[in-house]
Design brief:
The complex is a heterodimer of chains A (170) and B (411). Helices cover 29% and strands 21% of the residues of chain A. Chain A is an alpha/beta fold. Chain A has one domain: Aconitase, domain 4. In chain A, strands 4-3-2-1-5-6-7 form a seven-stranded mixed beta sheet. The two termini of chain A are 22 Å apart. By secondary structure, chain B is α/β, with parallel strands linked by helices. Chain B folds into two domains: 254 residues, Aconitase, domain 3, CATH 3.30.499; 143 residues, Aconitase, domain 3. In chain B, 31% of the residues lie in helices and 19% in strands. Chain B contains 14 helices and 18 strands. Chain B has a five-stranded parallel beta sheet, covered by helices on one side. In chain B, helix 6 runs parallel beside helix 8, helix 11 crosses helix 13 and helix 11 runs parallel beside helix 14. Classes of the chains: A alpha/beta (170), B alpha/beta (411). At the A-B interface, helix 5 and helix 7 of A face strand 1, helix 2, helix 3 and helix 5 of B. Bound molecules: iron/sulfur cluster. The site of iron/sulfur cluster has 12 residues of chain B, from helix 10.
């Protein structure tokens, strides 16, 4: 699996689920596409529109991206914004799991924030574990995702995976 | 040679697993509440619930409902529960974790909750962890889940705690050492003489807070005290002994000398921003909160009532028992009368003040609470300050209206 896209934003270390989608909307709005319009609202007013302008927007972030509550609305709204992949120095555990479950590819790559800029194009190759910065002609390596989790992504998430496989294939 | 996590997941997956392996395991109980079940129901779509007797739905977060929108969400949950004949816990039955702890948690069980503090059930040797709504939906549909067997940090508590020092103080001490992401992706395993001396309820406080250090689970050995706890709840048959092997492999080992632990407090707005209570003595507070899935059990109320007996609270004192059965027991023991006479406002069993959905703080107010999180805005106001402490510290501070070391109080 490969994804080529443009970096829409670079977020700092410890970006939390409250910043991604405020808890105040959580109990009241059950439509994820409507909820997505509030993504990063408190810290980045133009995030939603900027994502909509790009074909395959990519987020790059520092360590511990998605920390805080277990709210799955956080990766869900990013997906609804059209984010194709998130590359962070590390992820909070529940966010990481929720990402794969909804078919959102997450990659952990050390000190990635130091060598990329917003607007640059990246090509991610999941099979070999490389990120190619097309503008700078640089290559970064990451530890490939375990086969089971790659299967989740290929099927589009946990529910579609289970539907096609009928159960966990172990 | 295995850790507790490796033992449970080997047994339940039917394979010999070690940390790093990914396994599919049957789930003994999956539960979610009014904040997480609605999205899980949406994710489930047309799939039927496979094992309705292994699913529980609980109204505890915004409960009793404070608004018409929340009331409508609760109707959506009730319809779903009725359709599949799921066990449904109503407003006032209690906090999801306390209900599950009293009725379902047992050694070797795999328990998944749509709430980050599901790790509470590690106190009786269950592999219990919080997940998102899609996971909850997938478990409802298939009865199984996938897990990565975690590496383990062993926390050994040596010796015995002094009077008026609690497991809450031990955890705050621990998190000040390992920090809020010190156990990310890992299991915390509590061991040692100090743990043997703790009641099962006190262990639940430790396990409950494991997530605050980023841990997946917070496990304690299932010893004679767990056996006794299950017997008290008429679940003798669910007991199985469970201990880590002596030569199990750990990612890290931390030792804490129980006698050196003193009353601790976490300052705003981070759980790992911890100092001894003595450093803050005399600071004014507006509200003392007793309750939550961390410290709302009968022994916590007993401790607080012991200190408040015959005294008056100088601050607002808000008490939410963790469950209906905790409240019934507290009424029987006269604890409720003691707290009421001391000036407490008693709320219905549930999350109450903990997330500020039904009780909120005002601008600039300072709360001293026995809960587990003090994030900005946690109690419903971005301009309020939350300090975390044990039930003893909370009760002693209510009497003076200031942050107070409980060891200075007789009673
Ligand atoms: S008491 Fe607080 S921490 Fe516990 S489940 Fe309720 S809201 Fe969450």
């Amino acid at each position: 699996m490969k994804i080529t896209g443009e970096i829409v934003r670079i977020f700092p270390k410890d970006t939390n689920t409250d910043e991604i989608i405020s808890g105040k909307y959580k109990y009241d709005e059950l439509d994820l596409n409507k909820l997505a319009q509030h993504t990063f609202e408190a810290i980045d007013r133009h995030f939603y529109e900027d994502c909509r302008k790009l074909d395959q927007p990519i987020i790059v972030a520092g360590a511990n991206f998605g920390c805080g509550s277990s709210r799955e609305q956080a990766p869900q709204v990013l997906k609804a914004c059209g984010i194709s992949c998130i590359i962070a120095e590390s992820f909070a555990r529940i966010f990481y799991r929720n990402g794969f479950n909804i078919g959102m590819p997450l990659i952990e790559c050390d000190s990635i924030t130091k060598s990329v800029s917003q607007g640059e194009a990246l090509m991610v190759d999941f099979g070999v574990g490389t990120i190619t910065n097309i503008n700078r002609r640089q290559e970064h390596h990451f530890k490939t995702i375990p086969p089971f989790m790659q299967q989740l992504l290929q099927r589009g998430g946990l529910m579609p995976y289970l539907e096609t496989c009928g159960d966990y294939s172990d | 040679m295995k850790t507790i996590s490796e033992k449970i997941l080997s047994k339940r997956s039917g394979k010999d697993v070690e940390s790093g392996d990914i396994v599919a395991v049957p789930v003994d109980l999956v539960f979610a509440h009014d904040g997480t079940l609605p999205l899980a129901i949406q994710q489930l779509g047309d799939h039927p619930v496979k094992y309705p007797d292994k699913v529980a739905a609980i109204c505890d977060h915004a409960s009793p409902s404070p608004s018409e929108k929340v009331s409508n969400v609760q109707i959506f949950m009730r319809h779903f529960a009725r359709k599949y004949g799921l066990e449904f816990f109503e407003n006032g039955d209690g906090i999801c974790h306390q209900i599950v702890f009293e009725r379902y948690a047992a050694p070797y069980k795999v328990i998944i909750g749509g709430d980050s503090h599901t790790c509470t059930h590690g106190a009786v040797g269950a592999f219990a962890t919080g997940m998102g709504s899609t996971d909850v939906a997938a478990i409802m549909a298939y009865g199984k889940t996938w897990l990565k067997v975690p590496e383990t940090i062993k926390v050994e508590l040596l010796g015995q705690l002094n009077e008026k020092v609690h497991s809450k103080d031990v955890f705050l001490d621990l998190i000040s050492q390992i920090t809020a992401d010190g156990a990310t992706y890992k299991a915390l395993e509590f061991a040692g003489e100090g743990i043997r001396h703790l009641s099962v309820e006190s262990r639940a406080t430790l396990s409950n807070m494991a997530i605050e250090a980023g841990a997946k689970v917070g496990l304690c050995p299932a010893d004679a005290k767990v056996k006794e706890y299950l017997a008290q709840h008429k679940r003798d048959a669910e007991y199985l002994p469970l201990y880590a092997d002596r030569a199990a492999a750990y990612a890290r080992e931390v030792q804490i000398r129980a006698e050196t632990v003193v009353p601790m407090i976490a300052k705003p707005h981070r759980v790992d921003n911890v100092v001894p209570v003595t450093d803050l003595e005399g600071e004014e507070i507006d509200q003392v909160c007793l309750g939550s899935c961390t410290n709302g059990r009968i022994e916590d109320l007993r401790v607080a009532a012991g200190i408040l007996d015959g005294k008056q609270s100088k601050t607002r004192l808000v008490v939410y028992p963790a469950s209906r059965s905790v409240l019934i027991q507290a009424v029987r023991e006269g604890i409720m009368e003691t707290l009421l006479r001391a000036g407490a406002a008693i709320g219905p069993p549930g999350c109450g003040f903990c997330i500020g959905r039904t009780v909120a703080l005002g601008d600039g107010e300072v709360a001293l609470s026995t809960q587990n999180r003090n994030f900005k805005g946690r109690m419903g106001n971005d301009n309020a300050y939350i300090y975390l402490c044990s039930p003893s510290t909370a009760a002693a501070s209510a009497i003076t209206g200031k942050i107070t070391d409980p060891r200075e109080h007789n009673g």
